[in-house]
Amino acid sequence: MTGETTSTADPVASAPGLVGTIAGIREAVAAHRRDGRTVALVPTMGALHDGHLALVRRAREIADVVVVSIFVNPLQFGAGEDLDRYPRTLESDLAALGRDGVELVFAPTAAEMYPAGEVETRVTAGHVGTLYEGASRPGHFDGVLTVVSKLFHIVQPDHALFGQKDAQQVFLVQRMVRDLDLPVRVEVVPTVREPDGLAMSSRNRYLDAEQRRIALALSESLAAAESAAADGLDEVLAEAAGAFGDHDGIELDYLVVVDPETFLPVVEGAAGPARVLVAARVGATRLIDNGLITLG
Ligand code: AMP
């Protein structure tokens, strides 16, 4: 080392403003708005990875100010789920968001968001909210839509960004925005994957090396579904399920092909675009993935 100061790899990042209160984030956003800036919101539960950062980068492209919320929302976790052990990595999250030039991070406590404990008033996700993820996690999507709705009212963003990784969530958020006439434009960002195909997820860090290998069955099942798409629904389901046959240590939760417009299961003989949804348990870790196919 020569002791010279150089500005090589890491451009000097300024830490985002960290705000923990509803009043504080309203005030900070209002100050930007007074200066005529547009605002994008990226709701997250933290433990950020490159999937989250893809949302942040897209937000940066479409709005002047990027607000990232980091809140592990108790309302969307069921009894016996991983609320308590969900990874919380605020310091490294802030560093990553600083490198991407995020202006504001809203990281409230549960007491700030739900001062009376659990809320009585909720947004309900309707029938689709009870299927697939909603069948395995009763009440999950009501909890998601309730907190997303609260975040929209608190931040009042022009844009909100969500990942295609959580396809059912995106469908339900978009429908809530339409049904309730919420003045926000929802933008969906494609799923970011590890080089071997595993969809990035905060929960991947629960996996040991063997489980990490086994977890590839999810993305492999989607690839198998895509290869069989021209042969119709029954072939798609058979081939996609086959990807789980070779693995011990993974338990398929659901594998379903849905109409992207209604999110209801397609029937044999259907043709055109369809989305394959898959969920599986690897040890104690539940993972989900999805992909678009064109049924022949
Ligand atoms: P989470 O922190 O898991 O609630 O995710 C926050 C947002 O990031 C959601 O809109 C997710 O769909 C999105 N997201 C999570 N993982 C990925 C990924 N691998 N690719 C793209 N978006 C993702």
Automatic annotation (TrEMBL):
A Pfam short name: Pantoate_ligase
Binding site for beta-alanine: 76
GO cellular component: cytosol
Pathway where it operates: Cofactor biosynthesis; (R)-pantothenate biosynthesis; (R)-pantothenate from (R)-pantoate and beta-alanine: step 1/1
One of the GO biological process terms: pantothenate biosynthetic process
Broad enzyme group: ligase
Gene3D superfamilies linked to this entry: HUPs, Pantoate-beta-alanine ligase, C-terminal domain
Entry annotation: catalytic residues: 52 (proton donor)
Catalyses which reaction(s): (R)-pantoate + beta-alanine + ATP = (R)-pantothenate + AMP + diphosphate + H(+)
Binding sites annotated in the UniProt record for ATP: 45-52, 163-166, 192, 200-203
Keywords on record: ATP-binding, Cytoplasm, Ligase, Nucleotide-binding, Pantothenate biosynthesis
Compartments reported by the entry: Cytoplasm
A GO molecular-function annotation: ATP binding
InterPro entries to which the protein is assigned, alphabetical: Cyt_trans-like, Pantoate_ligase, Pantoate_ligase_C, Rossmann-like_a/b/a_fold
SUPFAM superfamilies referenced in this protein's UniProt entry, alphabetically: Nucleotidylyl transferase
CDD domains noted in UniProt: PanC (cd00560)
Positions of (R)-pantoate binding: 76, 169
EC number: 6.3.2.1
Subunit and partners: Homodimer.
HAMAP family the UniProt entry points to: PanC
Family to which the UniProt record says this protein belongs: Belongs to the pantothenate synthetase family.
Comment field (misc): The reaction proceeds by a bi uni uni bi ping pong mechanism.
PANTHER family recorded: CYTIDYLATE KINASE/PANTOATE-BETA-ALANINE LIGASE, PANTOATE--BETA-ALANINE LIGASE
The protein's role, per its UniProt record: Catalyzes the condensation of pantoate with beta-alanine in an ATP-dependent reaction via a pantoyl-adenylate intermediate.
Protein name per the record: Pantothenate synthetase
Organism whose genome encodes this protein: Agromyces flavus
